Amino acid sequence: MTIGEALLNLRKQLGLTQTEMAANVVSTSFYSKVERNIHDIGTNDLLQILNKHQINASYFFENLNDKENISEDIMNRISVAFEQKSRDKLLKIKQEIDLLPNNRQTEYYKLQLQLTLEVYLPKAKEIPIELKNKLKQYILVNNNWNIHSLQIFRETMRIYDIEELNFLVGTILAKYSNPNTLQSSLQECIGAICINYLDNCYEKNSTKLIQEVLTYISTINSKGPVLFIKLLGKYYASVFQKDTATCQQITKVLKLAGYSDFVSMLPKI
Question: What pLDDT is stored for residue 67 in this prediction?
């Protein structure tokens, strides 16, 4: 794997644009050519870019020759161990993660693993207080959105009060103002955050950012998995507008598609 390919993989993992990844260390144009292996990047510039994104340089260089996507490999193994309900495998993965460099990406792995061990695997009704505090610290103290922090936030939005949600969702919409320029995985993640936010607003009777979120969902191009998100966005818009007929039409479509259990959890007018 070349340095350009490694930077490209890293940028995708972080959910950053080329301009954000270049971080004013080099121009976007030059950085783009580095990713495409047209230009070589100087050592000082590379180290500055890694430092800007809190990436351990030793870890980066150690994995240059690794053909697998490290992030996907770890998360896939956690997912497989969870599906197999194997606590032993999860604990083995924990031992490996504990040996990784201490940075924001490793912290993400640790939090995902802890959520799996303490919440998802035992089907706990509540997230333990200590873990809640860790999750909030990861999001609030390091308020620098990327695919990892967005995924953590999407899964744990119910630990925040409505004012915190208003602030955090507002910063997400500001940073990712044009959803159609994003990679599909990032687009889906933010779309899911929007739906979860609308659900929280309904439960807590808050309307502060509802229109901004609904408008954001409506601007997403209708393709692939985001079609489901757009459909749910329309459903929540109808709930807030008390449009019973449209809600019934959408629930009928969802039931026909095999989502009856999901429909039962949706808010009703």
Answer: 43
d(CA 210, CA 197) in angstroms, rounded, equals 8
Half-sphere exposure at residue 71, Cβ-oriented, CA atoms within 13 angstroms: 16
Q: How far is 135 from 153, CA to CA, in rounded Å? A: 8
- Write down how long the chain is: 269
Q: What is the CA radius of gyration of the chain?
A: 20
Quick one: 245 exposed, middle or buried, by C-beta within 10 A (0-12, 13-18, 19+)?
exposed
Nearest CA to 117 among 98, 93, 100, 99? 93
Query: 129 pLDDT exceeds 50?
Result: yes
pLDDT higher than threshold 60 for residue 65: no
Q: Which residue has the tokens 């197999």?
A: 84
Q: How confident is the model at residue 16 (pLDDT cuts 50, 70, 90)?
A: confident
Give 85-122 as a DSSP string: T-HHHHHHHHHHHHTS-SSHHHHHHHHHHHHIIIIITT
What residues contact residue 143 under an 8 Å CB cut-off, 6+ apart?
168, 171
Q: Please count the other Cβ atoms lying within 10 Å of the Cβ belonging to residue 78.
A: 22
CA distance 149 to 14: 9
Task: Report yes or no: 49 and 76 within 8 Å, Cβ to Cβ.
Answer: no
Task: Give the position of tokens 């479509």.
Answer: 253
